[in-house]
Write a structure and sequence with these properties.
The chain is of the alpha/beta class. Helix content is 44%, strand content 13%.
Length: 349
């Protein structure tokens, strides 16, 4: 049984997990999240398996920064990889096992052209043989390098969409089910839709029904958990969507931009407060201190490989909802270096 099924059984409620988001869910942002309250599972941002194995030493150093995590606080954590080549996926999974990850997720939904050119991401839906190959690579690496082999807790998971140009659940999902992965996360849009239309969670329900029917006909095989993804606003919404569409959990992405403390509201569910009367609201001080923390960690851990400009998209996340928020935001937006921003913010708390 994978660790995800164990958590699901233990918590006996839908699971709420952090989506992979490139240049967003890095170790710095995850630290603010984990200091408030952890999701049930963390995902890293996506990383090229080919790059992890084939790049120059400096290229590998840079890519491995995307796999940094706090080993105590940010657990369990799944590394998301993309590749269309068995060899690199196998080797990169071995690396993730050595780095202590709890699982590897294969990206089969990213619409980015540079990823698709490598026959990875959403292009996997057009190349089912390659999809089967890379799933096998991750499973083979688990068998060969995890203690306990095939029956190890290490999760092998897939994140995908409902189809490429149109909804293709009837062909795509049975193919994935037959690979006996531990979890399939369904972003409830096609590749063509990108993020331009509302996610249609009825597709998540369809996948859950397909999984249940498959499990009945394949009692000797391992059926995956199903998570839904797309447009979840907060934990209340995640809970309601999971209950309505019958999935095992919900993955939350962009809503984190509005509220890094979002997972704290899992406590409402655990206390039986289904009206979310005790929803968490951060104070001004908490907002400023959290941004200070994120900037400090970004600068310390990632500053040598990532542009500080990436931090700026978070300024509004924190500097909002209190009297001098706009004034602070405008001031730090004009600053180009971490020390400048930190000095200014420290003078405000
Ligand atoms: C800035 C950004 C970066 C993303 N990076 C990734 C990624 O690395 N891997 C992935 O599978 N999906 C990625 N996604 C997609 C999200 O994980 C998620 O599927 C999508 O945003 C829909 O969920 P949401 O409505 O909760 O945001 C990214 C989305 C955004 C907005």
């Amino acid at each position: 049984m994978s660790f995800i099924s164990k958590i699901k059984k233990e918590k006996n409620r839908p699971l709420f997990v952090l989506a992979p988001m490139a240049d967003v869910t890095d170790v710095a942002f995850r630290t603010v999240i984990s200091d408030a309250m952890s999701p049930d599972i963390y995902w890293t941002e996506f990383v090229s398996a080919d790059g992890l194995i084939r790049a120059t030493a400096s290229g590998k150093y840079k890519l491995q920064k995307d796999l940094l995590y706090d080993r105590e606080k940010q657990r369990p954590i799944i590394a998301q990889l993309f590749s269309s080549t068995y060899k690199y996926m196998y080797e990169a999974t071995k690396l993730c096992i050595e780095l202590g990850f709890d699982g590897v997720d294969i990206n089969m939904g990213c619409p980015d052209r540079s990823i698709e050119k490598q026959k990875s991401g959403a292009a996997m839906m057009k190349n089912p043989d390659l999809a089967i190959d890379v799933i096998k690579a991750v499973k083979d690496a688990r068998r060969d390098f995890c203690e306990g082999g095939d029956s190890a807790d290490f999760a092998v998971t897939v994140k995908t969409r409902v189809g490429y140009n149109s909804v293709e659940l009837d062909t795509w999902i049975p193919l994935l089910l037959d690979q006996e992965v531990d979890l399939i996360t369904i972003h409830a849009r096609t590749r063509k839709e990108m993020s331009k239309v509302d996610a249609d969670w009825s597709h998540v329900k369809t996948v859950v029904n397909m999984r249940d029917a498959w499990a009945l006909n394949n009692e000797d095989k391992k059926a995956p958990l199903i998570f839904g993804n797309g447009d979840v606003k907060d934990i209340k919404d995640a809970y309601e969507k999971s209950m309505t569409y019958g999935c095992d959990g919900a993955m939350i992405g962009r809503a984190m931009f509005g509220n890094p403390w979002l997972f704290k509201d899992i406590e409402c569910i655990e206390k039986g407060d289904f009206d979310f009367k005790d929803k968490f609201t951060p104070s001004r001080e908490e907002r400023i201190k959290s941004l200070i923390k994120q900037v400090e960690i970004f600068d310390r851990e990632l500053g040598d490989v990532k542009s500080f400009a990436l931090m700026k998209k978070f300024f509004k996340t924190y500097m909002t909802g209190f009297d001098d928020a706009k004034e602070i935001r405008e001031a730090i937006m004009s600053m180009g270096r971490a020390e400048e921003v930190l000095g200014f913010l420290r003078g405000r708390v």
